[in-house]
Specification:
By secondary structure, the protein is an alpha+beta fold. The chain has 9 helices and 6 strands. Helix 4 packs antiparallel against helix 8. The termini are far apart.
Length: about 270
């Protein structure tokens, strides 16, 4: 009789095996208190060929630098092509085949400054599950829960960005318009137009999976970003106006001031 039950794809199977090997390596160490998978490493229904392994290693107090300084506990450590320590003590590791890891090594006390959404505790030698529940429940940084504030920031950053562009500072102008302003617009969109599939969104990064939940808006924003900096900014403003102009929290007076300052007639 044929078994028609769904089986993991070969890529997913390799992904899961790597995580299991990582756990086995850490179980063997007395200085490790826990291992927590994060992001798609925990939410494996999202895994595809571009997924990285995202995780946190929790050590006993004082052992953090021991693991940070010696990557031999990672699976296939001899095949690491690149290892980078970031300013916040996170790490990026690239293997010879392009496989990417993103992780942090910390103690339980160090978790007090962390934030997370999807996670799975796969090793817990006391207190890790409770600590990570607090991490996940902590308010997320950098974004408000008010659409009116996010719309206002979107308009203000567009003004600054276009001003920088006209001054000749095209690189910083592009960063302000294409990243900072769009981040505020995406956050405002999510708040002002809650979606049934909103659970797919990432509450740490407003860009993640936005177009999966809001496909038409995602396409329109992506099209705007194909243009030069000022044209992109103007297209983004027009898109926001077309969708939200009648919303009570949309800053119509601020938009008028922006248009007047930049000479953007309707």
């Amino acid at each position: 009789m044929t078994d028609n039950r769904a089986r993991p794809s070969p890529g997913l199977d390799r992904f899961i095996r790597f995580g299991a090997r990582l756990r086995d390596n850490l179980v063997a160490r007395a200085d490790v208190q826990g291992l927590v998978f994060m992001g798609s490493t925990a939410a494996r229904e999202r895994v595809d060929e571009w997924s990285d392994h995202d995780f946190a290693v929790v050590t006993v107090d004082g052992a953090e630098e021991r693991l940070r300084g010696d990557p031999s506990w990672l699976p296939d450590a001899a095949h690491i092509a690149l290892i980078l320590r970031e300013e916040h003590d996170g790490f990026k590791v690239v293997y010879d085949d392009g496989h990417l890891l993103e992780f942090g090594v910390t103690s339980l006390a160090g978790l007090e400054s962390w934030h997370a959404n999807a996670y799975e505790v796969v090793l817990d030698r006391d207190g890790v599950a409770e600590a990570f529940a607090r991490v996940a429940a902590r308010p997320k940084p950098g974004r408000s829960a008010r659409a009116d504030r996010e719309f206002g920031l979107f308009v203000a950053v567009l003004l600054v960005g276009v001003g920088r562009c006209r001054r000749g500072e095209v690189l910083v102008a592009s960063q302000l318009v294409r990243t900072v302003a769009v981040g505020h617009l995406l956050t405002a969109w999510r708040l002002a137009r809650p979606a049934g599939a909103g659970h797919l969104l990432d509450d740490l990064d407003p860009f993640r999976r936005f177009e999966q939940v809001y496909p038409a808006a995602g396409r329109a924003i992506a099209d705007a970003l194909e243009r030069d900096v000022e044209s992109a900014a103007r297209s983004l403003l027009e898109l926001a106006e077309s969708e939200f102009d009648e919303d009570p929290g949309f800053p119509r007076r601020g938009v008028t001031a922006l248009r007047n300052r930049l000479g953007w007639d309707h």
